[in-house]
Amino acid sequence: MEDPMALEAPALLHRLARAHGVQPEYVGQDGSAQTVPDEALVKVLAALGVSVRPDGVAALAEAVEEAETAPWRDVLPPTVAARSGHRLSVPCHVAAGEPVVARVHTEDGRTLEVSVSEPVSEVRLVDGVERERVHVQIPADLAPGWHRLEVTSGSGSTASAVLVCAPSRLSTARPFLERRGWGAAAQGYSVTSADSWGIGDAADMASLAEIVARHGADFLLLHPLHAVEPGPHPADSPYSPVSRRFLSALVVHVPSIPEFADLPAAEQAELRSAGARVQAELERTGRIDRAAVAAVLWPALRRVHEVPRSPEREAAYARFRAEAGPGLDDFALWSVLRLDGDGTGPDLADPAWAPGGVEAERVRVERATDVDLHRWVQWIAAEQLAGVQERARSAGMRMGVMVDLAVGATRETADAWMLGDVLVPTMSVGAPPELFNQLGQDWSQHPWHPRRLAETGYAAFRDMLRTVLRGAGGIRMDHVLGLFRLWWIPEGAGATQGAYVEYDHEAMLAVLTLEAERAGVVVVGEDLGTFEPWVQRRLAEAGVLGTSILWFEQEDGEPTPPERYRRLAMAAVNTHDLPPTAGYLEGVQVDLRERLGLYTVDVAQERRRSAEEVRAFLAAAARRGLLAEADVDVPEAGPEVRERQIVALHRLLAQAPSALHSVALVDAVGERRIQNQPGTLQDQYPNWTVPLGDGAGRMVSVEDLADSASAARLFDAVDAELRASVPVGIGVSLHTSPLAQPGRGDAGGMNVYVRQAAVALARRGVRMILLTRAEEPVGADGARVRMVDAGGQAPPVTVVDLAAGPSAPVPKEELAGLGAEFTRAALDWLASDAVPGGPVLGGADAPPVAFVHGHYWLSGSTAAALARAAHAPYLQTMHTTAAAKMLEDPELREPDARVEAERGIVERADLLVVNSAAEVADLRELLDVPRARTRVLPPGADLETFTPDGAAQWPGAPEDDGALRVLFAGRVQRHKGPHLLVSALGVLRERAGGAGVDPGVRLHVNGAASGDNGLDLAGLAAREGVADLVTFSGPVPAPALAAQFRAADVVAMPSASETYGLVALEAQACGTPVLAHRVGGLVYAVLDGVSGRHVTAGTPEAWAEALAEILADRDAWAALGTGAVRHAAGHSWEAYADGLLEAVAAVPRRSPGLDA
User: Fold this and answer.
1) CATH number for region 734-936
2) Which long-range contacts link 596-601 to residues 24+ away (Cβ below 8 Å)?
3) How far from 1067 is each of 953, 1036, 1037, CA to CA, in Å?
4) What would the pLDDT profile of 71-100 be if each residue is shown by its tens digit?
5) For the Glycosyl transferase family domain, which residue ranges apply (predicted)?
6) How far apart are CA 466 and CA 450, in angstroms?
């Protein structure tokens, strides 16, 4: 490690900043390198408790040394984040030479012993004592939950850490990956009804949900509903709450509170009349006045609070208080203190007024009724929002309400008082300069303190999430990049004078995904702005959807084709920080920013850029037949043209594969005005106070929206486009049916691969069609259609047997001659009305074909022809090649026709989907395929069928004689190598003493003869003198095969070559280690020494030696079963499908007429 004293002050300051998670440099949104000023670094470090001068070399060097030594003083980090299904190594620091025992205490009361690795040259002198680093191994099978990690050293000292284990991947978005959904995005406060009190409330939101649900919407995205000031002057911005954990009183619809009906009729009328006057003033002025709303709302709430509750209601209120915990009491107390301080208190610096302080507790007791009022309001708000969700789901929405989570709470308000040093009082959160906000942004919100968050087990973050997620179906996280880093702005500095501070994103993601999974909530992250590319990938791995905005999706200045949008995302035309689409098409944002002085570039140039951008997107819609050419260039478009343009852009977006599509309510009514102009104050622009209006600015109420023809047209158009644009995937397997029983004839791992891949793709919303040659008579139309259920809401997989050649099995060697006939049959059938759901080739109504995927060389010419006809990417998986087979077996000679055909296939294919890096190397070395045209996608295993749990059934001799049970499952042909196992038994028997001596091994062969290779295993067993040790059976369905795997001690794969080896994965998934020939993809399918062992030579002697080693230490072999399960668990068909669709999105679309 470099000596800190040898560095200059600037370098030391940067090193110190990095040690504390402060980034001294960052990459701007435009790709430029940016350096943070030293002054900003010093202030941010001071906020983290590190006080230094930027020019004091000695002090800086000392601070660096302390920062790099500090972790060694801690036995464990305060919080550890793990992912179920993934092993984790946790650093642990103890005195050198001390033994360590580690345990995990799970949330359900169990205690698990976990292993500790030996130190490997990781030693440091700390405060004169030599300490070493060991690693605690958290097992992959730890269940998701809140656990505690505890370590005890040899001296008897004990240390512990919070251990939060997240699900491997958030599963809540799965229904929308199977079938895409759409919803309306609304600033709920802006949509009022005749019964509103000057602002949109829970009753209005419920009505709004029911209106859009009638058109097929699955969700209603609302503005943040966080708590606002309890006094007479609540902030206008819903993104500037006083607390994110609690709810806004402004959402409450007072007449819907059950106790309101118990008030005297005259009093009810008086309260309603007061609310109606505020509503009338809103309609007169066209501005939402939250102060006026608060002036009538709080007296009404106070009066209803005084009404006695029924025993049932009182019990419900008591349950709410118990579930919310002491945080609810503290928030209610803060609300009272805030009002007592004329909207400025309590004093955050005075301990007497802090939570638990003497003065604060005095008020809690003396003002118990007032405190209870604010506690009760939270119950009412939560109850009414739960009612919104109930009505939304009852109306047919699959998700219901999606709530919005703000970045933080306003400085020096409730969260700052309640959370103390978990927030940083001298810093504000914001954003550096970027395209749409060239002066940067300061959101006036305290950031989390990363170290204190960890030291408190992320309790504040967890508790806030639990409240926000309660009763919701989805959550949109504003600036989700804040889980990774936040832009800290020192108090008094400008937004450009900040620095990025990093957070433990693995811990933040673990808390988020664990709580969201338990709540059943879909998570959407707003991942726009300045970020590093890997961040989006990590969010997607966690199952968090990103955000794609139409105007931002551009490549080299041109609109990105919808097919290239992210699937794991919510797509929208605009956001609340941009004008409605009608306004954007006119360029109102340019006019507004110019008027407010927000530009640092030439305004005329920006106006031209905006107009060119708009034209490009409208032209893209026109090219797809979504908009008439005459409607593209209309400078002064009238309402009808503007509506057609808006509908066309939303339809264009709906052709993207994104799981969710958001339609802004403002677009449905033609609104032009922006709701919020970032970087401005209320005296510059009326942010967050504009009620929903039409193109002329006239207010649109809930009742108006229910009868709006334009809103209905947009909603119905989006719903219809989503249903019509379900992408089609075509798989071609000419020589063997995906439905054939593996192990029989030519059916094997490839059949499983094609079928399971198609099912997984269907579960990702792709309408899969698999084409194969019929081997028995079919109908008069030359096809037999079978549907395979993909489960859930996924479209079924269509398997089509096409007549080509004899209606009977044909030797594989003769099938190439039927390729042209099979191709014609495929083209004709796909263009016919016989296709379930309608033709997929030809015609204006044909759905988009996402890809055509050929399997094995015999399918290549057909797949290429279909891709050309569908203008779709052509993918090819070889599964094996003649060149690779001949390399592995020099005595083998494949037909020249196959060799030449495979060369043509790899030249024509847009992408070669391969199973392993070994296959990439083979294709490059043997067929000159560039690495860039390959994509490694390891196949998955059916982890629902092949599991360690379930029946075990050995297919050989029924008695358990204690012998080592070896299972071979596959086609009985020389290439698969079962003869090597039979002969290996002969070698073992000879070593044991010859005929009649039991070598302690039994072999069962599960499979049927394949091809004309003359492989007679029974005869071979007799000649080797091991007929009593070998049994045989035919292929069996997957559940029975899983039972055989569980009963076996060893599953053997002696193949001459394998591109991967599905049998190996399936066996390991059942907990059985695999003995595999060290060739091709088996090197990756079986991890040597972890999930099985490799045999380096394809000879009987080598296999006999490998089996003898297992016999010598059967316990060590059986112990590999844990690693086998873990390794197989990392191979899911869902991951394969995600990878394939990601790869397809990167392949350029074929233009009509392009030759394959």
Assistant:
1) 3.40.50.2000
2) 596/677, 596/680, 596/684, 596/685, 598/437, 598/438, 598/439, 598/677, 598/679, 598/680, 599/438, 600/433, 600/438, 600/439, 601/438
3) 14, 14, 14
4) 999 999 999 999 998 889 999 999 998 999
5) 960-1118
6) 20
Helix (H, G, I), strand (E, B) or coil at 81: strand
DSSP E strands in 843-920: the ranges are: 849-855, 874-877, 911-914
Cα gap 685→673, rounded to integer Å? 11
CA distance 87 to 385: 40
Q: Greatest CA separation found in the chain?
A: 107
The string of DSSP letters for 184-239 reads: EEE-GGG---TT-SSS--HHHHHHHHHHHHTTT--EEEE---EE--SSS---S-TT
Strand partners, 136: 90, 116
Look at residues 248, 261, 258, 267 and name the one whose alpha carbon lies nearest to residue 201: 248
Tens-digit pLDDT profile for residues 811-839 = 888 999 999 999 999 999 999 999 998 89
Class of domain 964-1131: alpha beta
* Percent helix / strand / coil, the chain, rounded to 5: 40, 20, 40
What is the CATH number that goes with domain 79-166? 2.60.40.2910
| Number of other CB atoms surrounding residue 281 within 10 Å | 14
Residue-level pLDDT at 886: 86
Cα 895 from Cα 813, distance rounded (Å) = 9
Beta bridge partners of 1032: 1005
In sequence order, the β-bridge partners of residue 913 are 935
- DSSP string for 572-630: ES--TTS--HHHHHHTHHHHHHHHHT--SS-HHHHHHHHHHHHHHHHHHHHHTTSS-GG
Q: Do 79-166 and 964-1131 have matching folds?
A: no
* Eight-state DSSP code of residue 1052: E
> In this predicted model, what pLDDT tens digit does every residue of 92-137 receive, in sequence order?
999 998 999 999 999 999 999 999 988 776 899 999 899 999 999 9
Cα torsion 295, 301, 302, 307 to 10°: value is: 150
Rounded Cα distance between 230 and 249, Å, is: 8
Contact of 57 with 4, CB cutoff 8 Å: no
261/147 Cα distance (integer angstroms): 47
Of the candidates 542, 259, 504, the one whose C-alpha atom is nearest the C-alpha of residue 376 is 259
As a whole number, mean pLDDT of residues 952-980 equals: 89
Mean pLDDT on 888-897: 82
Q: Taking the mean position of all CA atoms in its chain, how far away is CA 290?
A: 37
Please, which residues bridge with residue 331 across strands? none
Return the exposure string of 518-543: e unless at least 16 CB atoms fall within 10 Å of the residue's CB, then b.
Answer: ebebbbbbbbbbbbeeebbeebbbbb
- Which of 687, 256, 302, 244 shows the shortest CA–CA distance to 447? 244
Q: Is the peptide bond before 657 cis (omega within 30 degrees of 0)?
A: no
So what's the pLDDT on residue 1011?
66
pLDDT in tens, 851-878: 999 999 999 999 999 999 999 999 999 9
Q: Which two tokens stand for residue 296?
A: 């009538």
The type of residue at 334 is W
User: Could you state, in order of their start, the residue ranges of all structural domains in the chain?
Assistant: 4-69, 79-166, 545-723, 734-936, 964-1131
Half-sphere exposure for 181 (CA within 13 Å, toward CB): 25
Please provide the distance, in angstroms rounded to a whole number, between the alpha carbons at the two ends of the chain.
Answer: 56
Q: Rounded CA gap, 275 and 196, in Å? A: 7
Q: Say how far apart CA 338 and CA 392 lie, in whole Å.
A: 35
Contact yes or no for 105/147 (Cβ under 8 A): yes
Structure pTM? 0.86
Answer yes or no: are the C-beta atoms of 996 and 956 closer than 8 Å.
no
Alpha helices in 262-367 (DSSP H): 265-285, 290-305, 311-324, 326-340, 358-366
- Token look-up 């609070």 returns 305
Q: Give the mean model confidence (pLDDT) for residues 664-687.
A: 92
Mean pLDDT of 57-72: 92
